[in-house]
Amino acid sequence: MSWPKTASTVIIGGGVVGCSIAYHLARRGERDVVVIERDAVGSGTTSKAAGGIRSQFPTETEIRFSLEAIAVFERFREEFGVDVGYRTIGYLFLVSDEADLRGFRERITLQRRLGVDVREIAPAEAKAIVPALRVDDLIAAVWGPTDGMAGPAEVTNGFARRARELGVTIVEGVEVTAITLAHGRAAGVVTTHGPVSAPLVINAAGPAAARVAGLAGVAIPVHPRRRHIFYTEPFPEIPGPVPLTTDRATGFYFRKEMEQLLLSPGDVEDIGEDFTVPIDRGRIDETVEKALHRIPVVEKARIAGGWAGLRPLTPDDHAIIGWAPGVDGFFLAVGFGGHGFQHSPATGRYVAEWLLDGKASLDLSLFDPARFTRGATVRDDRGADAE
Ligand SMILES: Cc1cc2nc3c(=O)[nH]c(=O)nc-3n(C[C@H](O)[C@H](O)[C@H](O)COP(=O)(O)OP(=O)(O)OC[C@H]3O[C@@H](n4cnc5c(N)ncnc54)[C@H](O)[C@@H]3O)c2cc1C
């Protein structure tokens, strides 16, 4: 490989976020952008995503990110020449708690003001959408018919391929082991293949973001937490399409994938890892138990397999986007939790604007990296932890 000794920008991490930023920088004319990926493009937590896309977020900024994502996924084929399997299957939240419903109602007001088609419906209406549901213990459901899904691998490869066509160098199988600092600012990276000097280094390292920030002496609260998804053998008893349906009481969610059902227990577990994610087969029993309660017909299904991934969570459940506190030239695009796939198109666009124009055209203060030093350590809303 011809090694890029210098770059205008080094992006650490070739997941969906790093590739989107690379593409958007190159599309805006930035030259000599280098993405460094320790494994293969899209092989990180992006490869574990359920592909869900929802506008049901608790803040205006995140709702706007989602609306932009939907617009991009709708025209992805024209722009990138790739079919990402975008489909509006809807998101359905099943609610059995009054306080939870009050939170949903507040968010629905905001979402509808921003043009999102989302509504509270009765349990019987939820059953009309997914007849297999047990609804006698629900007090309401929340339905977003325009929410949907697409393929994370296809989207990532679309960004990466177009970025390469526009001159971006993406190196795979190379790990960043140090961030070079000079006079308090980033000056490049050291890798397992050699150094690259660059005045701008972007951390897009997904679940490993805290470790990578630490290479520059920056502490950020990105906590990798394991979540499982299991799938059944073909299961015609629940015909598709099935919306991404979340049982708020237990965190369990499911949707149809081709002929199979995808089932997640909604687990959130610290396994002390930020790369490797073993499957805990003990989670199958928990998943089946939660599934049987909500969709009893699942007793006829057989689990055929599953996977686990790390969601890069932050204390308030919002991403971290902006300059790293204390180190000039070091930018953070991390902490996307369970929604980094769907927010990758908007992240790429606004980060490129910020870096090239000095300011993003949307207010991104929600994601301010410095907010945690001001005490934003508690989740300030109970938005949907859906994926
Ligand atoms: C079970 C599960 C379901 C999910 N479902 C959804 C969903 O439905 N919708 C949704 O929007 N999101 C979902 N997510 C979340 C989504 O997967 C992530 O938010 C998103 O993929 C983050 O992308 P990323 O590019 O930041 O991280 P990654 O894809 O992890 O990319 C970071 C890359 O950095 C590389 N890297 C790390 N350290 C170094 C280093 N030192 N040197 C070089 N390279 C390095 C890694 O190898 C990795 O490829 C889900 C996540 C899980 C686990």
Describe the structure.
Helix content is about 25%, strand content about 25%. The mean pLDDT is about 95. The longest helix is centred in the first third of the chain and has 16 residues, at about 100-115. The strands form 4 sheets. Strands 5-6-4-14-15-16-13-17 form an 8-stranded mixed beta sheet, sandwiched between helices. With about 375 residues, it is of the alpha/beta class. The site of flavin-adenine dinucleotide has 41 residues, from helix 1, strand 2, strand 13 and strand 17.
Give the secondary structure arrangement, pairings included.
Blueprint: E1 9-12, H1 16-27, E2 33-37, E3 52-53, H2 60-74, H3 76-80, E4 91-95, H4 98-113, E5 119-121, H5 123-129, E6 140-144, E7 148-149, H6 152-165, E8 169-172, E9 176-182, E10 185-191, E11 195-197, E12 201-203, H7 209-214, E13 223-232, E14 244-247, E15 253-257, E16 260-264, H8 282-294, E17 303-313, E18 320-323, E19 330-334, H9 344-357
Parallel strand pairs: 1-2, 1-12, 2-8, 4-14, 12-19
Antiparallel strand pairs: 3-7, 4-6, 5-6, 9-10, 10-11, 13-16, 13-17, 14-15, 15-16, 18-19
The structure holds flavin-adenine dinucleotide.
Flavin-adenine dinucleotide binds at residues 12-18, 36-39, 43-46, 48-52, 175-176, 204-208, 212, 227, 229, 309-311, 336-342, 387.
Range of strand content? 15-25%
Order of helix and strand elements from N to C terminus: EHEEHHEHEHEEHEEEEEHEEEEHEEEH
The mean pLDDT is 96
**Low confidence ranges:** none
* End-to-end separation: 38 Å
Sheet of most strands? 8 strands, mixed
Q: Helices and strands: which structural class?
A: alpha/beta
Please give the share of residues in helix. 25-40%
> What spatial order of strands do you see in the largest sheet?
5-6-4-14-15-16-13-17
Overall spatial form: globular
What's the gyration radius in Å? Answer: 21 Å
Q: What are the distinct ligands in this entry?
A: flavin-adenine dinucleotide
Please provide the count of β strands. 19
Number of helices: 9
